[in-house]
Amino acid sequence: MNRLRSWLLWVGWQRLTFIIAATPVVAFIAWWMVRLPPPPVESMIPVAPTAVSTPQQSAGGGGNDALTAPLDTTTGWLSPLGTVAPTRIAVHVVGAVNQPGVYHLGADARADDALRAAGGPTGNADLRRVNLAAVVHDGEQLNIPRIGERSPTTTTPGSASGGASPPQRNDMPSTTMPLVIDVNRATADDLDRLPGIGPSTARAIIDHRIRNGPFVSVDDLLAVRGIGPATLAEIRPWVRV
């Protein structure tokens, strides 16, 4: 206590008052010198998207109709709107394959890639009727026919089922067959037009219907000799009871 009193007497009240008054000023100056600089004004200004004018605008001296073009990451060039190709496509593989279904492939996939994705062909697949080198498109149905089978779909020239031009959609039934047939009323010829159903299987469906009565549901077709889960999944869109 005596030391504190002695120090106060040595400093004096005038010096003590000056130190107390000057402390906030010194603290503010120190804060100002060590504070982080504000971000540059340029970084806060929004940047307009890059616009690409059409050849007509370039020849005519410009205009206000410039279109914003997306960047094609594969080539590094700006692409016109609506021309950027999808990176993945969906292909429905049916017919004589081990695992029919919808598969997502690369945009440049071939029919052979879709066939491999579906588990490969079955033992009775007729691959001579399919152009495995053809490019498949998004939303296309690739039908792998069986040996001796008459396809119920309309195959256009150049599709994956033959030809060399880009394939067309192959998922619409032939005009000679109803869109959906009633298996309780269909003839053997009608049943023979279904995918995966040959003459012997069509005859087996008729015989089962005669012996056991009408089918109650489409799933009852599994009881017919020659029809398994894969064949039933293939013909389900085309039949009813």
Give a structural overview.
- By secondary structure, the chain is α/β, with parallel strands linked by helices.
- The chain has three domains: 2-31, no CATH class; 85-172, Ubiquitin-like (UB roll), CATH 3.10.20; 181-240, Orthogonal Bundle (DNA polymerase, domain 1).
- The protein has seven helices and seven strands; from the N terminus they run ααβαβββαββαααβ.
- The strands form three sheets. Strands 4-3-5 form a three-stranded mixed sheet, covered by helices on one side. Strands 1-2 form a two-stranded antiparallel ribbon.
- The radius of gyration is 39 Å and the shape is rod-shaped.
- It starts with a helix and ends with a strand.
